[in-house]
Design a protein that fits this description.
The protein is of the alpha+beta class and 466 residues long. The protein has three domains: 3-71, Orthogonal Bundle (Arc Repressor Mutant, subunit A); 89-253, 2-Layer Sandwich (Endonuclease, Chain A); 276-456, Jelly Rolls. It contains 13 helices and 27 strands. The strands form six sheets. It has an eight-stranded mixed β-sheet, sandwiched between helices. Strands 14-15-24-17-18-19-20 form a seven-stranded antiparallel β-sheet, with no helix packed on it. A hairpin with a 2-residue loop joins strand 14 and strand 15 (302-311). It starts with a helix and ends in a 10-residue tail after the last helix. 42% of the residues are buried.
Length: 466
């Protein structure tokens, strides 16, 4: 047993003896324990040099005081981790989040009754801060763009680091916003490798508070807020990320100088590297109850969904913007043995039969029907009777097959394929971008596919260029 474990078990006696010396009778009067228990505890502490015998009884040694302090800090950290654990659930196990940020943190889960409380606090902090430093791979609540735009117009000090994908989205969708923020008197936008969580540090006078946002399948999951040592850690984390990032002001200068930012309007939220559109009941985008997963998480620079399986029928759908149609075999989506890929001059969807080493329920369309560097929607449906392939909401191929569909409970891989399915080793294969991946447990009908296309178009945003 380590000295820390002993200090935890005997913390009450250590604490009393810190104010000693006290004899065992004194301890018996103060501690709710039997004489034999106190005798064993004191002997154990003496054997481990955490307590010594002196005139008048016993007292804690320096080693005992330090062990007690370490024990109390351990307990506080354990409590902090337990409090923050539900907010951290979506993060990768090796995510760089320090315990010091969690100590005393205010935590708000979006799904809870007060879920938007800290998001509102973040908005207020962004508006009133003298200085804002932030890193992000996505924008889950686009109204944050309006707040940062107002800061830029007011000359607020704003330093942002965004992912390459989010920078590309902002450049194409909100060039007026990007010019205002990056080229403002006190603005800066850099592009680099950012964590899967967002981080914002807001300074007002001598006070700093930091916000950490986590996302679950592309949607905001939780917000944590802290100050003091936590804000100091967040600041150092930001500086480390920015050191490896590239300033993009020169690229921003090349954007349309006449573009104006007129607000987010009806922009699809969220957008960026882990974009997704939530499918709530009543939304005109297909049967919500059949939706297994939407959006995706970052995985080695490519994308993956959570693990789901289905029997008898399915639909997979996503937006793609390929940049190299002639680049050989490119996996767009692989869900167990269901594959949608660019291969041999075709876009095809099929289910692989490993027992007979052949593709079943095969559908395809020539690559001449596709376009490079343009968003196109792809959907593949199969119901153990007919497989159908849709492009931009239109049926482009179908085939009959009686192959029994079974998709094991596994995450769908987008933009790469597994070399070793059992261990999850994968290779990147796709050149381009992907958006709003969806897995359904049934074969959607043509009208549902059409509505899905019309309601999730990544280019359907509103910005004022007048």
């Amino acid at each position: 047993m380590t000295i820390l474990h002993i200090a935890q078990r005997r913390s009450t006696i250590l604490d009393y003896l810190r104010d000693g010396p006290l004899d065992k009778r004194d301890l018996l009067d103060r501690v709710e324990a039997s004489r034999s228990t106190i005798d064993r505890a004191v002997e154990e502490l003496i054997d481990n040099e955490m307590v010594r015998e002196v005139r008048g009884g016993y007292e804690t040694t320096l080693a005992g005081v330090l062990a007690l302090q370490c024990s109390r800090e351990f307990e506080r950290d354990a409590d902090a981790i337990a409090t923050a654990a539900p907010a951290l659930t979506p993060l990768w196990k090796e995510s760089d989040v320090a315990v010091e940020f969690l100590r005393g943190a205010d935590v708000s889960l979006v799904a809870a009754a007060d879920g938007m409380r800290l998001l509102a606090a973040l908005g207020s902090a962004l508006r009133t801060a003298d200085e804002v430093q932030a890193v992000a791979s996505q924008i889950a609540h686009p109204e944050q763009l309006e707040t940062l735009y107002e800061r830029a117009n007011d000359g607020g000090d704003t330093d942002l680091v965004v992912s390459p994908s989010l920078f590309e989205t902002l450049s194409s969708t909100f060039p007026g916003w990007l010019r205002a923020v990056a080229l403002g008197e006190n603005g800066r936008v850099s592009v680099g490798s950012v964590p899967e969580y967002a981080l914002a540090i807001c300074r007002a006078g001598d006070e700093r508070e930091a916000f950490l946002l986590t996302y679950d399948d592309g949607r905001l999951h939780a917000v944590l807020r802290n100050d003091g040592a936590a804000a100091a850690w967040a600041t150092e984390r930001f500086r480390a990320i920015r050191r490896d990032a590239t300033d993009r002001r020169e690229q921003v200068r090349e954007l349309d100088a006449d573009a104006r930012f007129g607000g987010i309007g009806d922009a699809t939220s969220p957008f960026g590297e882990t974009s997704a559109v939530a499918a709530d009941s009543g939304e005109p985008d297909g049967p919500a109850e059949a939706l297994l997963a939407s959006g995706y998480a970052i995985d080695g620079g490519k994308l993956r969904t959570p693990a789901y399986g289905t029997e008898d029928a399915c639909t997979v759908a996503f937006w793609m913007r390929p940049t190299d149609l002639g680049g050989g075999w490119q996996i767009l989506l692989k869900w167990d043995y269901l594959v949608v890929a660019l291969r041999r001059g075709k876009l095809h969807g099929s289910v692989y039969d490993p027992d007979n080493a052949e593709h079943r329920a095969f559908t395809a369309v020539p690559l001449s029907s596709l376009a490079e560097s343009r968003w196109q929607h792809v959907a593949y449906t199969y119901d153990e009777s007919v497989a159908r392939l849709y492009l931009d909401g239109e049926l482009v191929d179908e085939t009959e097959d009686g192959y029994p569909l079974h998709v094991a409970e596994i995450g769908a891989a987008l933009g790469y394929h597994y070399r070793d399915r059992d261990t999850g080793v994968h290779d990147p294969t796709y050149e381009g971008r992907l958006y709003d991946a969806r897995l359904y447990g049934e074969a959607l009908a043509a009208p549902d596919i059409e509505r899905l296309v019309s309601t999730t178009d990544p280019t359907a945003v509103v910005w004022d260029s007048a």
